[in-house]
């Protein structure tokens, strides 16, 4: 899968759609991309995690299927008739991969899956965004989170076999489907906050346009079904129980083993904390999630970090007036680029994960809150940059793995605090160089409010990748990072 719609603008709009509400308990808001205790909290023991269809939206299987097929036809038509997309290789070969037909379809069906050599950002960002369109074709037509999974899986499967002359790729199918589900539910709920069925006039039009930018397939669905202009009640889950967003602007330094002789770069970050992970009222997947997107200048890629994590099921282990212990399952999407203007500094990591989380929060005094989290997850497919390109010539390897993260947060105001985290991810290469990769993250974030809506802060972090090869010497990358920023609540 080669040419896919960019995600950056839509994530930016998601961040800008926030309103300034109280920061959820246990979410420290310390300014870094991971300055939120990951979602995991509270309904499995009291009810069901299955989600009912959106109120007032019937299940429309035919329209949902039409939109999945239409999405593929629209993308393919652009690549075939407008761009006439092709790949040119160093050996002189040129492949016009959108020129599909019965011969390419039969060949793909006969030969089946392999792996591809696309760029890292294309595979790890653009493909999941494409998958979100399939997923939201179902969500916009009355299907809940779990019921929408097959639409993402089948939409991506049909593209892999029939949308390109290339053989279908394992990495494309997993990233597009599983990553698309995570991004799709996040964008669907973000668009719900923008839409307002009770609005009329020009205000209603602007809200519908904003919702369509965040979730284009949902916008199309509302247009053809008449919901774009129909006035009525809003669904009960239109807004989260609590919501907080912030915008950071500042300077960032990333070095190779040290920060000596390191040029600074400007960065912008948008963060959204949706819901309360310690709430006793969680009943649906992604009723609690976080989103962070960071843009950096002088970076290998403009998007240096994109993450979202959402609760799937959750329940209480203990609850009192002052303390809460919760456990839950969550879905995790990651894209990380630690580079600083050069491929020789930093590394990239991306992946789709499913795991469990255990969280504890206690309150003392009038203002102080302490929370701690332990997360363990299975990496379904991780992509880690490598110093030894494999047979396909990619600069990164693919493989499954395991990960953990420990976090601790201390809050003394509504949105300020100190947040610490230590995480490790191990991946076993199944396609690429012959070896394993271990990535580590140590990070400390501090945000000090100056007013109700403005604050200052900083981040100190160390990103570490160790690659253990079987045929060549092992390698290591250490990238310290320092950030200083101004923060504004949205």
Q: Which features does this protein show?
A:
490 residues; 12-stranded antiparallel beta barrel; 14 strands
Task: Describe the structure concisely.
With 490 residues, the protein is of the alpha+beta class.
Q: How many domains make up the 3D coordinates?
A: 2
Class from secondary-structure proportions: alpha+beta
Helix-strand topology string:
HHEEHHHHHHEEEEEEEEEEEE
Give the terminus-to-terminus CA distance.
Answer: 36 Å
The overall pLDDT, averaged over residues, is 87
Helical content (DSSP H or I, runs of 4+):
25-40%
Strand order of the largest sheet: 3-4-5-6-7-8-9-10-11-12-13-14
**Number of DSSP E strands:** 14
Strand proportion:
35-45%
Q: What is the multimeric organization of the chains shown?
A: single chain
Largest sheet: 12 strands, antiparallel, barrel
- Continuous helix count: 8
Radius of gyration: 22 Å
Poorly predicted ranges (pLDDT <50, ≥5 residues)? 3-54
Secondary structure: elements and pairs:
Layout: H1 8-16, H2 61-82, E1 87-88, E2 94-95, H3 102-111, H4 120-139, H5 145-162, H6 170-194, H7 201-214, H8 216-225, E3 243-254, E4 265-274, E5 289-296, E6 303-319, E7 323-337, E8 348-364, E9 368-385, E10 396-411, E11 417-428, E12 435-449, E13 454-469, E14 475-489
Antiparallel strand pairs: 1-2, 3-4, 3-14, 4-5, 5-6, 6-7, 7-8, 8-9, 9-10, 10-11, 11-12, 12-13, 13-14
Helix pairs in contact: 2-4, 2-5, 4-5, 4-6, 4-8, 5-6, 6-7, 7-8
């Amino acid at each position: 899968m080669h040419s896919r719609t960019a995600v950056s603008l839509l994530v930016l709009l998601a961040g800008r759609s926030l309103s300034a509400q109280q920061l959820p308990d246990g979410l420290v808001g310390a300014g870094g991309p991971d300055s939120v205790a990951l979602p995991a909290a509270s309904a499995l023991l009291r009810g069901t995690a299955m989600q009912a269809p959106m109120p007032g939206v019937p299940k429309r299987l035919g329209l949902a299927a039409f939109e999945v097929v239409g999405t593929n036809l629209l993308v393919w038509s652009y690549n075939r008739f407008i761009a006439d997309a092709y790949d040119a290789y160093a050996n002189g070969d040129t492949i016009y991969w959108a020129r599909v037909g019965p011969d390419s379809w039969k060949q793909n069906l006969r030969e089946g899956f392999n792996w591809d050599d696309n760029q890292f950002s294309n595979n790890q960002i653009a493909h999941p965004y494409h998958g979100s369109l399939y997923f939201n074709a179902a969500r916009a037509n009355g299907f809940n989170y779990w019921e929408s999974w097959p639409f993402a899986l089948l939409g991506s499967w049909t593209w892999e076999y029939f949308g390109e002359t290339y053989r279908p790729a394992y990495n494309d199918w997993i990233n597009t489907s599983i990553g698309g589900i995570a991004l799709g539910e996040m964008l669907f709920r973000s668009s719900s906050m923008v839409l307002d069925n009770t609005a009329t006039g020009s205000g209603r039009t602007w809200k519908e346009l904003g919702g369509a930018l965040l979730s284009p397939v949902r916008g199309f669905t509302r247009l053809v079904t008449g919901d774009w202009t129909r006035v009525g009640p809003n669904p009960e889950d239109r807004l989260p129980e609590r919501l907080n967003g912030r915008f950071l602007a500042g300077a960032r330094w990333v070095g190779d083993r040290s920060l000596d002789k390191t040029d600074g770069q400007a960065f912008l970050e948008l963060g959204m904390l949706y819901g309360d992970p310690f709430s006793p009222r969680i009943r649906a997947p992604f009723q609690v999630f976080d989103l962070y997107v960071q843009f950096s200048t002088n970076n290998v890629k403009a998007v240096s970090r994109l993450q979202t994590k959402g609760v799937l099921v959750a329940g209480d282990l203990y609850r009192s007036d002052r303390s809460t212990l919760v456990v839950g399952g969550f879905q995790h999407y990651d894209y990380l680029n630690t580079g600083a203007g050069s491929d020789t500094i930093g590394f990239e990591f991306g992946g789709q994960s499913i795991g469990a989380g255990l969280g504890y929060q206690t309150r003392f005094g009038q203002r102080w809150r302490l929370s701690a989290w332990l997360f363990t997850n299975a990496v379904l497919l991780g992509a880690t940059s490598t110093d030894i390109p494999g047979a396909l010539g990619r600069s990164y390897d693919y493989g499954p793995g395991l990960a953990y993260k420990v976090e601790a947060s201390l809050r003394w105001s509504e949105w300020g605090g100190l947040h610490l985290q230590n995480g490790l991810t191990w991946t076993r290469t199944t396609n690429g160089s012959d070896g394993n990769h271990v990535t580590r993250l140590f990070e400390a974030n501090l945000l000090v409010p100056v007013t109700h809506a403005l604050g200052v802060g900083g981040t100190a972090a160390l990103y570490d990748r160790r690659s253990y090869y079987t045929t060549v010497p092992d390698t290591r990358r250490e990238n310290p990072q320092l950030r200083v920023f101004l923060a504004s609540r949205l």
